[in-house]
Design goal:
single chain, about 170 residues, alpha+beta, 4-stranded antiparallel β-sheet, 4 helices, about 25% helix, about 45% strand
Length: about 170
């Protein structure tokens, strides 16, 4: 019998590390059905949906933790009851920066129960304007009861000078 679970692994990125993790997984009989990797300043976080025979799961977790003791592993059950979400929606949000902007944006998304597939936020000093500009690139999935117009109207409350582009 096959079992699916989510593995999150984080630590310092080294050459061929992800390939090594995948190789150990394959050798024990696991497959990564899907994965996402984020790299930032020499660190990384990876999430994988893993499928493996139930009787090999403990051996896989033990092998990963022993062979990659410098990494942190977290395991979670795979929730296969999918919410009814829209196809992916990509947004770019640009405005003047202010303290708490990312927090406020994430609160709006959480309040609307929007699923965030990908989020990148940047702050850039524009010396010619004498300001810091905030930019966020988002890949979202909206619940059935939330329209793109509603989402944009809520996000527009973040700043007087905001530009939101739907890609």
């Amino acid at each position: 019998m096959q079992h699916r679970f989510i593995t999150t692994v984080l630590g310092t990125l080294k050459p061929n590390l992800l390939q090594s993790l995948a190789q150990v997984s394959r050798e024990i009989g696991a497959s990564w059905e899907t994965s996402k990797v984020i790299k930032l300043d020499g660190q990384f976080v990876a999430m994988m949906r893993v499928m493996i025979d139930v009787d090999k799961e403990a051996a896989l977790k033990q092998a990963l933790e022993q062979q990659f003791s410098q990494l942190t592993f977290v395991y979670a059950e795979y929730d296969h009851e999918a919410k009814h979400l829209s196809p992916e929606c990509k947004l770019t949000l640009d405005c003047n920066d202010r303290s708490g902007l990312t927090h406020d944006m994430n609160q709006i998304l959480a309040d609307l129960e929007v699923s965030v597939d990908h989020q990148e936020c940047y702050r850039v000093q524009v010396t010619s304007l004498g300001k810091t500009v905030y930019s966020a690139k988002l890949t979202l999935r909206l619940p059935e009861n939330v329209t793109i117009a509603l989402l944009i109207s809520q996000l527009e409350t973040l700043s007087d000078n905001i530009r939101i582009e739907v890609n």
